[in-house]
Design a protein that fits this description.
Blueprint (H helix, E strand, L loop, with lengths): L6 E7 L2 E12 L5 E8 L6 E8 L3 H4 L24 H6 L3 E6 L10 E2 L3 E2 L2 E2 H13 L4 E7 L2 E2 H12 L7 E6 L8 E2 L2 E2 L2 H8 L12 E2 L1 H5 L2 H12 L2 H4 L2 H8 L5 H8 L5 H4 L3 H4 L7 E6 L3 H13 L5 E6 L13 H11 L13 E5 L4 E5 L7 E9 L3 E3 L13 E5 L11 E4 L7 E15 L5 E9 L5 E10 L31 E14 L4 E7 L25 E6 L7 E7 L4
Parallel strand pairs: 4-5, 4-9, 6-14, 10-11, 11-15, 15-16, 16-17
Antiparallel strand pairs: 1-2, 2-3, 3-5, 7-8, 12-13, 17-18, 19-20, 19-29, 21-28, 22-27, 23-26, 23-28, 23-29, 24-25, 24-27
GO molecular function: hydrolase activity
Pfam families: Peptidase_S15 (PF02129), PepX_C (PF08530)
Keywords: Hydrolase
Length: 579
Protein backbone atom coordinates (compact mmCIF):
# COMPACT_ATOMS: atom_id res chain seq x y z
CA UNK A 1 0.00 0.00 0.00
CA UNK A 2 1.42 3.38 -1.02
CA UNK A 3 1.36 6.06 1.67
CA UNK A 4 -1.24 8.79 1.15
CA UNK A 5 -0.66 12.51 1.35
CA UNK A 6 -1.42 13.99 4.76
CA UNK A 7 -4.35 16.42 4.86
CA UNK A 8 -5.82 18.67 7.54
CA UNK A 9 -9.43 19.68 8.00
CA UNK A 10 -11.85 20.85 10.68
CA UNK A 11 -15.13 19.09 11.41
CA UNK A 12 -18.07 19.82 13.68
CA UNK A 13 -18.91 17.08 16.19
CA UNK A 14 -21.92 17.97 18.31
CA UNK A 15 -21.05 21.66 18.31
CA UNK A 16 -17.37 21.02 19.05
CA UNK A 17 -14.74 21.86 16.45
CA UNK A 18 -12.26 19.03 15.93
CA UNK A 19 -9.11 19.27 13.84
CA UNK A 20 -8.42 16.09 11.91
CA UNK A 21 -4.99 15.18 10.55
CA UNK A 22 -5.67 12.49 7.96
CA UNK A 23 -3.21 9.89 6.68
CA UNK A 24 -0.22 10.73 8.80
CA UNK A 25 2.81 8.63 7.88
CA UNK A 26 4.36 6.97 10.94
CA UNK A 27 7.80 5.45 10.25
CA UNK A 28 8.96 2.23 11.89
CA UNK A 29 12.54 1.15 12.52
CA UNK A 30 12.62 -1.16 9.48
CA UNK A 31 11.36 1.54 7.11
CA UNK A 32 7.71 0.48 6.84
CA UNK A 33 5.33 3.46 7.11
CA UNK A 34 2.11 3.07 9.08
CA UNK A 35 -0.97 5.20 8.41
CA UNK A 36 -2.75 7.14 11.15
CA UNK A 37 -5.37 9.80 11.78
CA UNK A 38 -5.16 12.25 14.68
CA UNK A 39 -8.10 14.11 16.22
CA UNK A 40 -7.56 17.12 18.49
CA UNK A 41 -9.19 20.37 19.55
CA UNK A 42 -6.18 22.62 19.11
CA UNK A 43 -2.98 21.81 17.23
CA UNK A 44 -1.19 24.64 19.02
CA UNK A 45 -1.95 23.31 22.52
CA UNK A 46 0.02 20.09 23.11
CA UNK A 47 -1.85 17.52 25.16
CA UNK A 48 -1.63 13.80 26.04
CA UNK A 49 -2.46 11.33 23.29
CA UNK A 50 -4.51 8.13 23.38
CA UNK A 51 -3.37 5.65 20.71
CA UNK A 52 -5.57 2.98 19.12
CA UNK A 53 -4.01 0.28 16.91
CA UNK A 54 -5.65 -2.58 14.99
CA UNK A 55 -6.02 -4.11 11.50
CA UNK A 56 -9.72 -3.15 11.32
CA UNK A 57 -9.13 0.13 9.48
CA UNK A 58 -8.97 3.66 10.83
CA UNK A 59 -11.71 4.77 8.45
CA UNK A 60 -14.16 2.37 10.10
CA UNK A 61 -13.32 3.81 13.53
CA UNK A 62 -14.28 7.29 12.30
CA UNK A 63 -17.93 6.15 12.27
CA UNK A 64 -17.85 6.89 16.01
CA UNK A 65 -18.35 10.55 14.97
CA UNK A 66 -21.58 9.90 13.04
CA UNK A 67 -23.16 6.60 14.17
CA UNK A 68 -25.14 6.42 17.44
CA UNK A 69 -23.87 3.51 19.56
CA UNK A 70 -25.58 0.19 18.80
CA UNK A 71 -26.22 -2.65 21.24
CA UNK A 72 -26.80 -6.28 20.37
CA UNK A 73 -29.05 -7.47 18.79
CA UNK A 74 -29.10 -4.35 16.58
CA UNK A 75 -28.21 -5.40 13.00
CA UNK A 76 -26.05 -2.24 12.81
CA UNK A 77 -23.80 -3.50 15.62
CA UNK A 78 -20.31 -3.97 14.16
CA UNK A 79 -17.81 -5.70 16.40
CA UNK A 80 -14.86 -3.96 14.76
CA UNK A 81 -15.71 -0.32 15.64
CA UNK A 82 -13.70 -0.51 18.83
CA UNK A 83 -11.35 2.49 19.08
CA UNK A 84 -13.59 4.54 21.37
CA UNK A 85 -15.64 7.74 21.35
CA UNK A 86 -13.53 10.20 19.32
CA UNK A 87 -15.54 13.29 20.22
CA UNK A 88 -15.40 12.54 23.93
CA UNK A 89 -11.66 11.80 23.84
CA UNK A 90 -11.07 15.22 22.31
CA UNK A 91 -13.51 16.92 24.70
CA UNK A 92 -11.65 15.44 27.67
CA UNK A 93 -8.44 17.13 26.54
CA UNK A 94 -6.65 14.33 24.71
CA UNK A 95 -5.49 13.73 21.15
CA UNK A 96 -7.07 10.59 19.70
CA UNK A 97 -4.65 8.85 17.33
CA UNK A 98 -5.98 5.86 15.37
CA UNK A 99 -3.53 3.78 13.35
CA UNK A 100 -3.59 0.90 10.88
CA UNK A 101 -1.24 -1.97 11.64
CA UNK A 102 1.20 -2.94 8.92
CA UNK A 103 -0.34 -4.94 6.12
CA UNK A 104 -3.80 -3.49 6.80
CA UNK A 105 -5.77 -0.36 5.98
CA UNK A 106 -3.55 2.30 4.41
CA UNK A 107 -0.32 1.13 6.05
CA UNK A 108 2.61 -0.35 4.21
CA UNK A 109 4.18 -3.72 4.88
CA UNK A 110 3.00 -7.28 5.23
CA UNK A 111 0.87 -8.85 7.92
CA UNK A 112 1.57 -12.54 8.36
CA UNK A 113 -0.82 -14.65 10.39
CA UNK A 114 -2.17 -13.44 13.72
CA UNK A 115 -0.40 -10.80 15.80
CA UNK A 116 2.68 -11.24 13.61
CA UNK A 117 3.64 -8.54 11.15
CA UNK A 118 6.05 -9.78 8.53
CA UNK A 119 8.22 -11.35 11.23
CA UNK A 120 8.14 -8.14 13.30
CA UNK A 121 6.42 -8.31 16.71
CA UNK A 122 3.41 -6.00 16.69
CA UNK A 123 4.61 -4.68 20.05
CA UNK A 124 7.69 -3.40 18.27
CA UNK A 125 5.58 -1.49 15.76
CA UNK A 126 3.47 -0.17 18.63
CA UNK A 127 6.65 1.07 20.38
CA UNK A 128 7.73 3.00 17.26
CA UNK A 129 4.21 4.36 16.73
CA UNK A 130 3.90 5.58 20.33
CA UNK A 131 7.29 7.26 20.38
CA UNK A 132 6.56 8.99 17.07
CA UNK A 133 3.25 10.30 18.45
CA UNK A 134 4.95 11.52 21.62
CA UNK A 135 7.42 13.57 19.56
CA UNK A 136 4.75 15.46 17.57
CA UNK A 137 4.16 19.14 18.36
CA UNK A 138 0.49 18.50 19.18
CA UNK A 139 1.39 15.90 21.85
CA UNK A 140 2.89 16.82 25.23
CA UNK A 141 4.95 13.62 25.32
CA UNK A 142 2.53 11.59 27.47
CA UNK A 143 0.79 8.67 25.76
CA UNK A 144 -1.88 6.17 26.79
CA UNK A 145 -3.89 3.70 24.71
CA UNK A 146 -7.56 3.08 24.03
CA UNK A 147 -9.83 0.41 22.58
CA UNK A 148 -11.50 -2.92 23.23
CA UNK A 149 -10.77 -6.51 22.09
CA UNK A 150 -7.96 -6.50 19.46
CA UNK A 151 -7.19 -2.89 20.43
CA UNK A 152 -6.97 -4.10 24.03
CA UNK A 153 -4.56 -6.92 23.21
CA UNK A 154 -2.40 -4.40 21.37
CA UNK A 155 -2.13 -2.37 24.57
CA UNK A 156 -0.61 -5.34 26.41
CA UNK A 157 1.76 -6.08 23.52
CA UNK A 158 2.82 -2.43 23.45
CA UNK A 159 3.28 -2.05 27.20
CA UNK A 160 5.43 -5.20 27.31
CA UNK A 161 7.92 -3.43 24.97
CA UNK A 162 8.20 -0.54 27.48
CA UNK A 163 8.15 2.50 25.18
CA UNK A 164 9.31 5.42 27.39
CA UNK A 165 6.39 7.69 26.47
CA UNK A 166 3.67 5.14 27.27
CA UNK A 167 2.71 6.15 30.81
CA UNK A 168 -0.34 3.93 31.45
CA UNK A 169 -2.89 1.68 29.72
CA UNK A 170 -6.60 0.99 30.20
CA UNK A 171 -7.63 -2.32 28.62
CA UNK A 172 -11.30 -3.15 28.16
CA UNK A 173 -12.31 -6.59 26.91
CA UNK A 174 -8.88 -7.72 25.76
CA UNK A 175 -7.93 -11.19 24.53
CA UNK A 176 -4.83 -12.59 26.14
CA UNK A 177 -4.02 -16.28 25.78
CA UNK A 178 -3.92 -16.58 21.98
CA UNK A 179 -4.92 -20.24 21.92
CA UNK A 180 -7.87 -19.58 24.23
CA UNK A 181 -8.95 -16.80 21.87
CA UNK A 182 -10.07 -19.46 19.40
CA UNK A 183 -10.08 -22.86 21.12
CA UNK A 184 -11.89 -23.16 24.44
CA UNK A 185 -10.77 -26.33 26.13
CA UNK A 186 -9.77 -27.47 22.65
CA UNK A 187 -13.23 -26.75 21.17
CA UNK A 188 -13.00 -24.34 18.22
CA UNK A 189 -14.81 -21.00 18.53
CA UNK A 190 -15.89 -19.33 15.29
CA UNK A 191 -15.90 -15.68 16.34
CA UNK A 192 -12.27 -15.03 15.24
CA UNK A 193 -13.31 -16.00 11.72
CA UNK A 194 -15.82 -13.14 11.79
CA UNK A 195 -13.24 -10.73 13.21
CA UNK A 196 -10.75 -11.56 10.46
CA UNK A 197 -12.94 -12.18 7.41
CA UNK A 198 -15.87 -9.88 8.12
CA UNK A 199 -18.92 -12.03 8.75
CA UNK A 200 -21.90 -12.14 11.07
CA UNK A 201 -21.83 -8.60 12.43
CA UNK A 202 -18.16 -7.76 11.93
CA UNK A 203 -16.52 -5.79 9.14
CA UNK A 204 -13.31 -7.73 9.69
CA UNK A 205 -9.72 -6.84 8.92
CA UNK A 206 -9.04 -4.09 6.40
CA UNK A 207 -7.05 -6.53 4.27
CA UNK A 208 -4.44 -5.46 1.77
CA UNK A 209 -2.24 -7.50 -0.54
CA UNK A 210 0.23 -7.61 2.34
CA UNK A 211 -1.70 -10.12 4.51
CA UNK A 212 -0.38 -13.66 4.20
CA UNK A 213 -0.59 -17.01 5.92
CA UNK A 214 2.20 -17.72 8.36
CA UNK A 215 1.70 -21.46 7.80
CA UNK A 216 2.21 -21.07 4.04
CA UNK A 217 5.30 -18.98 4.73
CA UNK A 218 6.74 -21.56 7.12
CA UNK A 219 6.16 -24.94 5.47
CA UNK A 220 6.75 -26.36 2.01
CA UNK A 221 3.88 -27.12 -0.35
CA UNK A 222 4.35 -30.83 0.33
CA UNK A 223 4.25 -30.34 4.10
CA UNK A 224 1.14 -28.15 3.82
CA UNK A 225 -0.58 -30.83 1.72
CA UNK A 226 0.06 -33.45 4.40
CA UNK A 227 -1.09 -31.17 7.23
CA UNK A 228 -4.24 -30.11 5.37
CA UNK A 229 -5.11 -33.77 4.77
CA UNK A 230 -4.75 -34.45 8.49
CA UNK A 231 -7.13 -31.63 9.40
CA UNK A 232 -9.63 -32.68 6.72
CA UNK A 233 -9.70 -36.15 8.32
CA UNK A 234 -11.33 -34.61 11.41
CA UNK A 235 -15.11 -35.28 11.17
CA UNK A 236 -15.84 -31.93 12.83
CA UNK A 237 -13.96 -30.18 10.03
CA UNK A 238 -15.47 -32.35 7.31
CA UNK A 239 -18.98 -31.42 8.42
CA UNK A 240 -18.45 -27.67 8.58
CA UNK A 241 -18.46 -26.03 5.11
CA UNK A 242 -16.42 -22.95 6.03
CA UNK A 243 -13.58 -25.02 7.49
CA UNK A 244 -13.64 -27.35 4.49
CA UNK A 245 -13.46 -24.33 2.17
CA UNK A 246 -10.72 -22.61 4.17
CA UNK A 247 -8.44 -25.65 4.03
CA UNK A 248 -8.87 -26.03 0.28
CA UNK A 249 -8.41 -22.34 -0.52
CA UNK A 250 -6.00 -20.99 2.13
CA UNK A 251 -4.99 -17.84 0.24
CA UNK A 252 -8.61 -16.67 0.48
CA UNK A 253 -8.56 -16.99 4.29
CA UNK A 254 -4.92 -16.46 5.26
CA UNK A 255 -5.17 -15.66 8.96
CA UNK A 256 -8.13 -17.97 9.59
CA UNK A 257 -6.32 -20.79 7.77
CA UNK A 258 -3.47 -20.50 10.27
CA UNK A 259 -5.85 -20.93 13.20
CA UNK A 260 -7.70 -23.87 11.65
CA UNK A 261 -4.41 -25.62 10.97
CA UNK A 262 -3.24 -25.26 14.57
CA UNK A 263 -5.84 -26.95 16.75
CA UNK A 264 -3.60 -27.65 19.75
CA UNK A 265 -1.70 -25.25 21.96
CA UNK A 266 2.06 -24.87 21.76
CA UNK A 267 4.84 -22.72 20.36
CA UNK A 268 2.65 -21.41 17.55
CA UNK A 269 0.46 -19.58 20.06
CA UNK A 270 2.91 -19.07 22.90
CA UNK A 271 5.60 -17.20 20.94
CA UNK A 272 4.01 -13.79 21.49
CA UNK A 273 1.30 -14.65 24.00
CA UNK A 274 0.27 -11.43 25.81
CA UNK A 275 -0.24 -13.36 29.05
CA UNK A 276 3.44 -14.32 29.03
CA UNK A 277 4.54 -10.84 27.97
CA UNK A 278 2.50 -9.28 30.78
CA UNK A 279 5.37 -9.98 33.15
CA UNK A 280 7.34 -7.21 31.38
CA UNK A 281 4.79 -4.47 32.11
CA UNK A 282 5.94 -1.86 34.62
CA UNK A 283 3.47 1.00 34.04
CA UNK A 284 0.03 1.51 35.64
CA UNK A 285 -2.56 -0.87 34.16
CA UNK A 286 -6.34 -1.03 34.54
CA UNK A 287 -7.99 -4.17 33.14
CA UNK A 288 -11.77 -4.19 32.65
CA UNK A 289 -13.99 -7.06 31.49
CA UNK A 290 -17.72 -7.84 31.59
CA UNK A 291 -19.21 -11.19 32.53
CA UNK A 292 -20.76 -13.56 30.02
CA UNK A 293 -17.80 -14.92 28.02
CA UNK A 294 -15.80 -16.90 30.52
CA UNK A 295 -12.57 -17.37 28.56
CA UNK A 296 -12.00 -13.62 28.28
CA UNK A 297 -12.72 -13.24 31.99
CA UNK A 298 -10.33 -16.10 32.79
CA UNK A 299 -7.59 -14.57 30.62
CA UNK A 300 -8.10 -11.09 32.06
CA UNK A 301 -7.68 -12.37 35.61
CA UNK A 302 -4.56 -14.36 34.65
CA UNK A 303 -3.08 -11.31 32.96
CA UNK A 304 -3.83 -9.17 36.02
CA UNK A 305 -2.14 -11.69 38.30
CA UNK A 306 0.99 -11.80 36.13
CA UNK A 307 1.50 -8.05 35.75
CA UNK A 308 4.13 -6.97 38.30
CA UNK A 309 3.37 -3.24 38.01
CA UNK A 310 2.98 -1.42 41.32
CA UNK A 311 -0.25 0.27 40.20
CA UNK A 312 -2.79 -2.11 38.67
CA UNK A 313 -6.55 -2.47 38.82
CA UNK A 314 -9.12 -5.07 37.77
CA UNK A 315 -12.82 -4.35 37.25
CA UNK A 316 -15.27 -7.12 36.39
CA UNK A 317 -18.56 -5.67 35.17
CA UNK A 318 -22.08 -7.03 34.80
CA UNK A 319 -23.62 -9.33 32.24
CA UNK A 320 -24.30 -9.18 29.26
CA UNK A 321 -20.92 -9.55 27.57
CA UNK A 322 -21.19 -7.38 24.46
CA UNK A 323 -20.64 -3.64 24.73
CA UNK A 324 -21.84 -1.01 22.27
CA UNK A 325 -20.29 -0.38 18.90
CA UNK A 326 -18.97 2.20 18.44
CA UNK A 327 -17.46 1.58 21.87
CA UNK A 328 -18.53 4.14 24.49
CA UNK A 329 -18.64 2.16 27.75
CA UNK A 330 -16.01 2.41 30.48
CA UNK A 331 -14.83 5.84 29.33
CA UNK A 332 -15.56 7.38 32.75
CA UNK A 333 -13.13 4.97 34.44
CA UNK A 334 -10.60 5.36 31.65
CA UNK A 335 -10.46 9.17 31.85
CA UNK A 336 -10.05 9.10 35.63
CA UNK A 337 -7.11 6.71 35.12
CA UNK A 338 -5.48 8.79 32.42
CA UNK A 339 -6.15 12.10 34.19
CA UNK A 340 -4.04 10.69 37.02
CA UNK A 341 -1.20 9.09 35.06
CA UNK A 342 -1.03 11.27 31.93
CA UNK A 343 -2.12 14.66 33.29
CA UNK A 344 -0.89 14.32 36.87
CA UNK A 345 -4.28 15.15 38.42
CA UNK A 346 -4.49 13.88 42.00
CA UNK A 347 -8.02 12.41 41.80
CA UNK A 348 -7.48 9.52 44.23
CA UNK A 349 -8.06 6.80 41.65
CA UNK A 350 -4.88 4.99 42.69
CA UNK A 351 -6.00 4.94 46.34
CA UNK A 352 -9.15 2.95 45.58
CA UNK A 353 -9.30 -0.88 45.94
CA UNK A 354 -7.40 -2.72 43.24
CA UNK A 355 -10.19 -5.20 42.42
CA UNK A 356 -13.88 -4.44 41.94
CA UNK A 357 -16.32 -7.20 40.99
CA UNK A 358 -19.99 -6.87 40.07
CA UNK A 359 -22.01 -9.66 41.70
CA UNK A 360 -25.00 -10.82 39.70
CA UNK A 361 -28.11 -11.40 41.80
CA UNK A 362 -27.44 -8.74 44.42
CA UNK A 363 -26.24 -6.45 41.61
CA UNK A 364 -23.66 -4.88 43.91
CA UNK A 365 -19.90 -4.44 43.62
CA UNK A 366 -17.52 -6.23 45.98
CA UNK A 367 -13.99 -4.84 46.32
CA UNK A 368 -10.66 -6.23 47.45
CA UNK A 369 -7.01 -6.64 46.57
CA UNK A 370 -7.26 -9.80 44.42
CA UNK A 371 -9.74 -12.03 42.62
CA UNK A 372 -11.80 -13.37 44.19
CA UNK A 373 -12.07 -10.37 46.51
CA UNK A 374 -13.74 -12.47 49.24
CA UNK A 375 -12.52 -15.73 50.79
CA UNK A 376 -14.14 -18.82 49.28
CA UNK A 377 -14.50 -22.50 50.04
CA UNK A 378 -15.07 -24.98 47.23
CA UNK A 379 -18.14 -27.16 47.80
CA UNK A 380 -19.40 -30.10 45.80
CA UNK A 381 -22.77 -30.38 44.08
CA UNK A 382 -23.39 -33.95 42.94
CA UNK A 383 -25.33 -35.07 39.89
CA UNK A 384 -28.13 -37.30 41.21
CA UNK A 385 -31.04 -39.32 39.75
CA UNK A 386 -34.12 -37.51 38.50
CA UNK A 387 -31.89 -34.75 37.10
CA UNK A 388 -31.18 -33.23 40.49
CA UNK A 389 -28.10 -31.51 41.94
CA UNK A 390 -27.42 -32.11 45.60
CA UNK A 391 -24.80 -31.25 48.21
CA UNK A 392 -25.13 -34.88 49.33
CA UNK A 393 -23.30 -37.56 47.30
CA UNK A 394 -24.99 -40.57 45.74
CA UNK A 395 -24.89 -43.70 47.94
CA UNK A 396 -26.10 -46.27 45.39
CA UNK A 397 -23.79 -48.09 43.01
CA UNK A 398 -24.09 -48.16 39.20
CA UNK A 399 -26.42 -51.15 39.23
CA UNK A 400 -29.11 -49.05 40.95
CA UNK A 401 -28.25 -45.45 40.07
CA UNK A 402 -28.63 -45.98 36.34
CA UNK A 403 -26.69 -43.54 34.14
CA UNK A 404 -28.15 -40.70 32.12
CA UNK A 405 -27.35 -40.27 28.46
CA UNK A 406 -28.03 -38.62 25.14
CA UNK A 407 -27.43 -39.36 21.48
CA UNK A 408 -26.38 -36.44 19.31
CA UNK A 409 -26.72 -36.79 15.56
CA UNK A 410 -24.56 -34.48 13.42
CA UNK A 411 -26.13 -31.14 12.61
CA UNK A 412 -25.82 -32.10 8.95
CA UNK A 413 -28.87 -34.34 9.47
CA UNK A 414 -30.72 -32.67 12.35
CA UNK A 415 -31.28 -29.20 13.76
CA UNK A 416 -31.91 -30.57 17.23
CA UNK A 417 -29.25 -30.09 19.92
CA UNK A 418 -29.65 -32.62 22.73
CA UNK A 419 -29.18 -31.18 26.23
CA UNK A 420 -29.21 -32.88 29.62
CA UNK A 421 -29.89 -30.75 32.69
CA UNK A 422 -29.70 -31.08 36.46
CA UNK A 423 -30.94 -28.55 39.01
CA UNK A 424 -30.74 -27.88 42.73
CA UNK A 425 -33.69 -27.38 44.97
CA UNK A 426 -34.64 -23.75 45.50
CA UNK A 427 -32.11 -22.07 47.79
CA UNK A 428 -33.58 -21.24 51.20
CA UNK A 429 -30.88 -18.64 51.88
CA UNK A 430 -28.75 -16.54 49.51
CA UNK A 431 -25.39 -18.04 48.53
CA UNK A 432 -22.60 -16.28 46.64
CA UNK A 433 -20.31 -17.93 44.09
CA UNK A 434 -17.07 -16.14 43.28
CA UNK A 435 -14.11 -17.65 41.45
CA UNK A 436 -13.33 -20.62 39.21
CA UNK A 437 -14.79 -24.11 39.51
CA UNK A 438 -14.54 -27.63 38.15
CA UNK A 439 -17.01 -30.07 36.59
CA UNK A 440 -15.97 -33.67 37.25
CA UNK A 441 -17.83 -35.75 34.69
CA UNK A 442 -17.68 -39.55 34.55
CA UNK A 443 -18.78 -40.57 31.09
CA UNK A 444 -18.30 -42.92 28.17
CA UNK A 445 -18.80 -42.33 24.46
CA UNK A 446 -19.04 -44.71 21.53
CA UNK A 447 -16.64 -42.69 19.37
CA UNK A 448 -13.03 -41.59 19.86
CA UNK A 449 -13.91 -37.94 20.48
CA UNK A 450 -16.66 -35.45 21.28
CA UNK A 451 -17.18 -32.01 22.80
CA UNK A 452 -18.23 -31.50 26.40
CA UNK A 453 -20.07 -28.20 26.84
CA UNK A 454 -21.43 -27.21 30.25
CA UNK A 455 -23.50 -24.10 30.85
CA UNK A 456 -24.62 -23.04 34.33
CA UNK A 457 -27.67 -20.87 34.87
CA UNK A 458 -29.37 -19.00 37.70
CA UNK A 459 -33.09 -19.82 37.39
CA UNK A 460 -35.63 -17.69 39.24
CA UNK A 461 -38.99 -18.79 40.67
CA UNK A 462 -40.80 -17.72 37.51
CA UNK A 463 -38.45 -19.63 35.21
CA UNK A 464 -36.41 -16.60 34.09
CA UNK A 465 -32.77 -17.54 33.59
CA UNK A 466 -29.39 -15.88 33.38
CA UNK A 467 -26.18 -17.54 32.32
CA UNK A 468 -23.59 -17.61 35.11
CA UNK A 469 -20.65 -19.43 33.55
CA UNK A 470 -19.56 -22.08 31.07
CA UNK A 471 -17.03 -24.88 30.62
CA UNK A 472 -15.67 -26.51 27.46
CA UNK A 473 -13.48 -29.54 26.86
CA UNK A 474 -12.60 -31.56 23.76
CA UNK A 475 -12.72 -35.16 25.02
CA UNK A 476 -9.43 -36.05 23.33
CA UNK A 477 -7.73 -33.13 25.16
CA UNK A 478 -8.77 -34.24 28.66
CA UNK A 479 -5.22 -34.49 30.05
CA UNK A 480 -4.63 -32.39 33.16
CA UNK A 481 -1.55 -30.52 34.29
CA UNK A 482 -1.22 -32.00 37.82
CA UNK A 483 1.22 -29.35 39.03
CA UNK A 484 -0.83 -26.35 37.88
CA UNK A 485 -4.26 -27.79 38.79
CA UNK A 486 -5.84 -27.23 42.20
CA UNK A 487 -9.22 -28.06 43.72
CA UNK A 488 -11.77 -26.06 41.78
CA UNK A 489 -9.22 -24.87 39.23
CA UNK A 490 -8.20 -27.58 36.76
CA UNK A 491 -5.63 -26.69 34.09
CA UNK A 492 -5.28 -28.58 30.80
CA UNK A 493 -2.09 -28.36 28.71
CA UNK A 494 -4.17 -28.73 25.50
CA UNK A 495 -0.96 -29.52 23.62
CA UNK A 496 -1.95 -32.90 22.17
CA UNK A 497 -4.95 -35.09 21.41
CA UNK A 498 -5.34 -38.53 22.97
CA UNK A 499 -8.25 -40.38 21.31
CA UNK A 500 -10.86 -41.79 23.67
CA UNK A 501 -11.33 -45.56 23.81
CA UNK A 502 -14.97 -46.11 22.77
CA UNK A 503 -17.00 -47.48 25.67
CA UNK A 504 -14.39 -46.70 28.33
CA UNK A 505 -15.55 -44.70 31.36
CA UNK A 506 -13.34 -41.64 31.69
CA UNK A 507 -13.26 -38.86 34.27
CA UNK A 508 -13.35 -35.56 32.42
CA UNK A 509 -12.53 -32.51 34.55
CA UNK A 510 -13.81 -29.35 32.87
CA UNK A 511 -12.53 -25.95 33.94
CA UNK A 512 -15.53 -23.85 34.98
CA UNK A 513 -14.75 -20.27 34.05
CA UNK A 514 -14.77 -17.56 36.74
CA UNK A 515 -18.10 -16.30 37.98
CA UNK A 516 -19.48 -13.80 40.48
CA UNK A 517 -23.14 -14.27 41.40
CA UNK A 518 -25.44 -14.54 44.38
CA UNK A 519 -28.10 -17.23 44.14
CA UNK A 520 -31.05 -15.51 45.79
CA UNK A 521 -33.65 -17.18 47.99
CA UNK A 522 -36.04 -19.16 45.81
CA UNK A 523 -33.58 -19.43 42.92
CA UNK A 524 -31.96 -22.62 41.61
CA UNK A 525 -28.67 -23.54 39.98
CA UNK A 526 -29.31 -25.33 36.69
CA UNK A 527 -26.50 -27.14 34.88
CA UNK A 528 -26.82 -28.12 31.23
CA UNK A 529 -24.59 -30.61 29.40
CA UNK A 530 -24.35 -31.11 25.66
CA UNK A 531 -21.79 -31.65 22.93
CA UNK A 532 -23.11 -28.79 20.78
CA UNK A 533 -24.55 -25.38 21.56
CA UNK A 534 -28.09 -24.35 20.69
CA UNK A 535 -27.81 -21.90 17.83
CA UNK A 536 -30.35 -19.55 19.40
CA UNK A 537 -31.33 -19.06 23.02
CA UNK A 538 -31.60 -16.27 25.59
CA UNK A 539 -27.82 -15.97 25.90
CA UNK A 540 -26.71 -16.57 22.32
CA UNK A 541 -29.11 -13.94 21.00
CA UNK A 542 -26.95 -11.36 22.79
CA UNK A 543 -23.89 -12.44 20.81
CA UNK A 544 -22.95 -11.90 17.16
CA UNK A 545 -24.19 -14.65 14.80
CA UNK A 546 -20.81 -16.40 14.52
CA UNK A 547 -20.13 -16.50 18.26
CA UNK A 548 -20.64 -20.22 18.74
CA UNK A 549 -18.45 -23.31 18.74
CA UNK A 550 -17.89 -25.81 15.93
CA UNK A 551 -20.29 -28.71 16.53
CA UNK A 552 -19.39 -32.38 16.66
CA UNK A 553 -19.40 -33.81 13.14
CA UNK A 554 -19.91 -37.49 14.06
CA UNK A 555 -22.90 -39.28 15.64
CA UNK A 556 -22.09 -39.85 19.32
CA UNK A 557 -23.84 -41.69 22.13
CA UNK A 558 -22.94 -40.10 25.47
CA UNK A 559 -23.45 -42.00 28.74
CA UNK A 560 -23.19 -40.03 32.00
CA UNK A 561 -22.41 -41.94 35.19
CA UNK A 562 -23.32 -40.40 38.55
CA UNK A 563 -23.29 -43.12 41.16
CA UNK A 564 -21.27 -43.91 44.29
CA UNK A 565 -18.37 -45.24 42.21
CA UNK A 566 -18.54 -42.42 39.67
CA UNK A 567 -19.27 -39.20 41.60
CA UNK A 568 -19.97 -36.77 38.78
CA UNK A 569 -20.08 -33.37 40.45
CA UNK A 570 -19.59 -29.65 40.28
CA UNK A 571 -16.96 -28.07 42.51
CA UNK A 572 -18.02 -24.45 43.03
CA UNK A 573 -16.48 -21.49 44.94
CA UNK A 574 -18.86 -20.39 47.70
CA UNK A 575 -17.90 -17.36 49.74
CA UNK A 576 -17.16 -18.50 53.27
CA UNK A 577 -19.36 -15.98 55.07
CA UNK A 578 -22.39 -17.68 53.49
CA UNK A 579 -21.36 -21.34 53.69
Amino acid sequence: MTARETTQRTIDAGGRKITVLKDLGVPTRDGVVLAADAYTEDLDAPRPALVALSPYGKELQALALTMPPQRRPSPMWDGCIEAGDIARVVAEGYVHVIGDLRGSGYSEGEHIGNYNAGGVPLGQDAYDFIEWVAAQPWCDGNVGMIGISYFGSMQVLAAAERPPSLKAIFVSGGHYDFYETTYHGGVMWLMPRAAREGRGGDSGWAFTDGVRSRMLETYSAEEIEVRVAERLADPDVQAWPNLFHTLHYPTNHEAWFDIVMNDVDGEWYEERNPVNLAENIDIPVWLQIDQGRGWTLDGTIECFDRIPAAHKKLTIGPYPPMQSRPLIEEHDKMFRWYDKWLKGIDNGVDDEPAVSVFVEGTREYVVGDAFPPKPVEHRELFLRPRRSLSFEPETMGPEFAAPDGFFQAPLTVTDRVEILSWSTAAFEEPATLMGTGAFHLFASIDQDDTNWIMRMWDEGPGGQRQLLTTAYLKASMRELDPEASTVGSPVHPLTRKVPVTPGAIEEYVLRVYPMAATILTGHRIVVELSCNEPMVDAHNSLLPPDAFHVPVGRPVQHTIYRDAEHPSRLVLPFTTDEV
